[in-house]
Automatic annotation (TrEMBL):
Keywords: Cytoplasm, FAD, Flavoprotein, FMN, NADP, Oxidoreductase. The keyword Membrane does not apply. GO terms for cellular component: cytosol; nucleus. One of its GO terms (molecular function) is FMN binding. Residues 7-151 form the Flavodoxin-like domain. PANTHER family: NADPH-DEPENDENT DIFLAVIN OXIDOREDUCTASE 1 (PTHR19384:SF10), NITRIC OXIDE SYNTHASE-RELATED (PTHR19384). Gene3D superfamilies: 3.40.50.360, NADPH-cytochrome p450 Reductase, Chain A, domain 3, Translation factors. InterPro entries: Flavdoxin-like (IPR001094), Flavodoxin/NO_synth (IPR008254), Flavoprotein-like_sf (IPR029039), NADPH_Cyt_P450_Rdtase_alpha (IPR023173), Riboflavin_synthase-like_b-brl (IPR017938). This is Flavodoxin-like domain-containing protein. It is found in: Cytoplasm. Its main location: cytoplasm.
Length: 288
């Protein structure tokens, strides 16, 4: 029998905080020799969940107590009334909530997830972790001791599992390789324009749709953080629909001159990366 088994790490994250933590936790699980992926809940094939024995959920809350976009599909599925109350009897799990106690619906998404998993027959290994951005030490104040306890509980199931997580090797989530082939990859043609990739969201607007109205520094000049109040005005006929709680992301892009300079540096140093090469980014899978 192996010393460890499979432990999946699934996250719901709107602005990457919970995702970053999930990836960090997943690296720890690899150091402890557990198998299994780290994935956004919506990327995980949910029909497999009934076969899983161990899972960690890292779940942020957004909007007014809402679940992040990349777990909405997963959450909707879990809410199906037709699911029997013993659907997840095999599963032992932990939920780590990422929230901010300034919001009245503090960590709501994680609380709902924790409750629903129990309703479906899964067994919590620990109470849910309520990480709070308002804590002086940030989310880690709750996360670090909680994880320690979680892995102590895992030892009940895997008495021979490692306990030392201090190993220095870095476990990458992605495998990156260069494809010099100018043909499309796997029949899929990627965006040819290396200077200006379009955003992945449908409701992505071009920078030309906005004019800067105000850009005011809100922190004192002597303070180390430069925090800005930026006011944008739409120009032309573009209208944006928004509601309180919506988030506006600005996705910067590199200017053509900088990109060209980078390729000149590659060339000077005889690094074989050309503008027409593709970088193939694949998810790391251990034995799957
Ligand atoms: C627009 C917005 C709405 C939020 N709403 C809530 C909320 O209702 N409850 C809560 O506990 N935290 C709320 N938060 C705080 C986030 O949950 C917290 O910052 C978390 O670390 C974000 O994780 P993420 O970056 O993985 O999305 C909100 C944050 C933002 C930006």
């Amino acid at each position: 029998m192996s010393d460890t088994g499979r432990l999946i790490v699934l996250y719901g994250s709107q602005t990457f905080t919970a995702q970053e933590a999930a990836e960090r936790i997943w690296r720890t699980t690899k150091i402890l020799d557990f198998k299994g992926p780290v994935q956004a809940m919506d990327d995980y094939p949910i029909s497999r969940l009934i076969h899983e024995e161990f899972a960690l959920f890292v779940c942020a809350t957004t909007g007014q107590g809402d679940e992040p976009d990349n777990m909405k599909k997963f959450w909707k599925f879990l809410l199906r009334k037709s699911l029997p109350s013993n659907s997840l009897v095999k599963l032992k799990f932990g939920v780590i909530g990422f929230g901010d106690s300034n919001y009245s619906k503090f960590n709501f998404a994680a609380k709902k997830l924790h409750k629903r998993l129990i309703q479906l027959g899964a067994k919590p290994l620990l109470d849910l972790a309520l990480c709070d951005y308002q804590h002086d030490l940030g989310h880690d104040a709750v996360l670090i001791p909680w994880l320690k306890e979680f892995f102590t509980k895992m030892q009940i199931y895997f008495p021979k599992m490692k306990t030392d997580t201090l190993e220095n090797s870095f476990v990458p989530r992605w495998k990156v390789s260069i494809s010099k082939n100018t043909e499309c990859l796997n029949g899929t043609c990627l965006n040819e324009d290396i200077y200006y990739g379009k955003g992945y969201k449908d409701n992505c607007l071009d920078a030309q749709c906005f004019e800067l109205e105000k850009n005011i520094r809100t922190t004192d000049e002597t303070h180390f953080q430069d925090v800005r109040l930026i006011t944008l005005r739409t120009v032309g006929n573009d209208k944006i629909d928004y509601q309180p709680g919506d988030v506006f992301n600005i996705r910067p892009r590199n200017c053509k001159e900088d990109v060209d300079d980078l390729f000149k540096i590659f060339n000077t140093h005889k690094i074989d990366i050309k503008p027409h090469y593709y970088l193939l980014v694949e998810e790391y899978h251990d034995g799957e």
